[in-house]
Amino acid sequence: MADEQALDEVVEFTSGLIRIDTTNRGGGDCRERPAAEYAAERLAGAGLEPLLLERTPGRTNVVARIAGTDPSAHALLVHGHLDVVPAEAADWSVHPFSGEIRDGVVWGRGAVDMKNMDAMILAVVRSWARQGIRPRRDIVIAFTADEEDSAEDGSGFLAGRHPELFEGCTEAIGESGAFTFHDGDGREIYPIAAGERGTGWLKLTARGRAGHGSKVNKENAVTRLAAAVTRIGEHEWPLRLTPTVRAALTELAALYGFEPDFRNVDGLLEKLGPAAKLVESTVRNSANPTMLDAGYKVNVIPGEAAAFVDGRFLPGGEEEFVATLDRLTGPDVDWEFHHRSVALQAPVDSPTFAGMRAAVEEFAPGGHVVPYCMTGGTDAKQFSLLGIDAAYGFAPLKLPEGFDYQAMFHGVDERVPVEALHFGVRVLDRFLRTA
Ligand SMILES: [Zn+2]
After folding, report:
1. Which of 248, 315, 374, 394 could bond 343 through an S-S bridge, CB–CB 3.0 to 4.6 Å?
2. What is the 3-state secondary structure (H, E, C) of the chain?
3. Distances in Å between the alpha carbon of 42 and those of 12, 49, 58, 119, 221?
4. How far is the CA of 5 from the centre of ligand 1 (A)?
5. What does the pLDDT look like over 90-115, one tens digit per residue?
6. How far does residue 76's CA lie from ligand 1's centre (Å)?
7. Please, are residues 211 and 304 in contact by the beta-carbon 8 Å criterion?
8. Percent share of the chain, pLDDT over 70
9. 32, 113, 147, 183: which one is catalytic?
10. How far is the CA of 291 from the centre of ligand 1 (A)?
């Protein structure tokens, strides 16, 4: 059991980490080092030997290993990122880097994404040190830089340059899972992520014949680009149920007391009401046009025009994604991956998933755990390159009704209740000790 001091420390550390501004503006504009040192000091205080690792000065990662009692067991990776997205102080009710605790709530950038989880990990391992507890499996803790941009200074660097630190790891837990989803009808659902869609950010380039805007031009690059962008934006991607999403639909249907009819997924989603939100973005691939770049003067037809598309593909769905984009862009428009990362699929019938479920159910009686697939991605994608492809989103928080967790991510007035942090520590402790 997590002790009283752990409950105090998780609040202190969440607030303390928020006060260290680790804003990641992209393009290398971020400095995680002070937060990494803060975390490393606290790990050292628990008798661990954390390593500080950098590819670029100031972009610091922390890795530490706790030796388990069963040397034959596979190791578990527990990871959390140290950077946060920017926050505009003028828009906030409290200063986003104050870490202020007001009326039982910790405020600030990173309160849910994800300095809360970083603090929980620290609080749990320190309480183990005080109580002489050792987990069954080796646990590798990684606090990463650069998750909110390219991950090149963070998990990408760790996976590429320091694979030895992750020796024996076969599974991972990280952000986005085991939070309370209120369905508005009294049910509390705890979705645990067991999959991530892959990322396919695309650059489209249309080529044509440059010329005067007053002349006939059947090879107008802007027109060609616009047509391709429209085809992509209006494309109806076919339904594809991955094992995780199928399991999610099955469990949700059971919760609502009906038999799932997989021949009519749209009807099934409708019957789920608000809970459909947990699955509706992951029953198909998607591609949303987001940026346009063409021309420089109203009476000049440019020879080239470009657009960017935010594409996401399901586990197993990349080939179809590529073939579909080839078809939709057509012969006059080229496309390439501006950024690509893998999709992930983790088993939901594993002992690890059962352990997470049991830990949540112990401290949230009446709560319903369901698996789900993340619409986007996390550092787990990079760690999967080490063979750690069973990655789960498990950063437990018990949240009151009306608390819009999803809106907190990268949102204004990001905050987390103290009670939610206490729940997180208890559940994480329970799961990690017995995992
Ligand atoms: Zn995050």
Report:
1. 315
2. CCCHHHHHHHHHHHHHHHHCCCECCCCCCCCCHHHHHHHHHHHHCCCCCCEEEECCCCCEEEEEEECCCCCCCCEEEEEEECCECCCCHHHCCCCCCCCCEECCEEECCCCCCCHHHHHHHHHHHHHHHHHCCCCCCCEEEEEECCCCCCCCCCHHHHHHHCHHHHCCEEEEEECCCCECEECCCCCEEEEEEEEECEEEEEEEEEECCCEECCCCCCCCHHHHHHHHHHHHHHCCCCCCCCHHHHHHHHHHHHHCCCCCCCCCHHHHHHHHHHHHHHCHHHCCCEEEEEEEEECCCCCEECCEEEEEEEEEECCCCHHHHHHHHHHHHCCCEEEEEEEEECCEECCCCCHHHHHHHHHHHHHCCCCEEEEEEECCCCCHHHHHHHCCCEEEECCCECCCCCCCHHHHCCCCCCEEEHHHHHHHHHHHHHHHHHC
3. 12, 10, 19, 10, 57
4. 26
5. 999 999 999 999 999 999 999 999 99
6. 19
7. no
8. 100
9. 147
10. 23
Residue 176 alpha carbon to ligand 1 centre in Å: 8
- Length of the chain (residues): 435
Report how far ligand 1's centroid is from the alpha carbon of 47 (Å): 27
Dist. CA 81 → ligand 1 center (Å): 7
Report the mean per-residue pLDDT for the chain.
97
Is residue 83 part of the annotated active site? The answer reads yes
Q: How far is the CA of 379 from the centre of ligand 1 (A)?
A: 9
CA angle (112 as vertex; 111, 118 as ends), nearest 5: 80
Report strand pairing: 105-107 vs 101-102: antiparallel
The CA 147 to ligand 1 mean position distance, Å, reads 7
For residue 107, list its beta bridge partners: 415
Q: How far apart are CA 17 and CA 34, in angstroms?
A: 9
Taken in order 397, 403, 407, 412, is the CA torsion positive or negative?
A: negative
Å from CA of 59 to ligand 1 middle: 16
**Nearest 5°: CA angle at 81, between 79 and 84?**
160
Mean pLDDT to the nearest integer, 132-148: 97
**Active-site pick, 9, 83, 146, 318:** 83
Helices (H), 168-220: none
pLDDT tens for 372-415 read 999 989 999 999 999 998 999 999 999 999 988 888 989 999 99
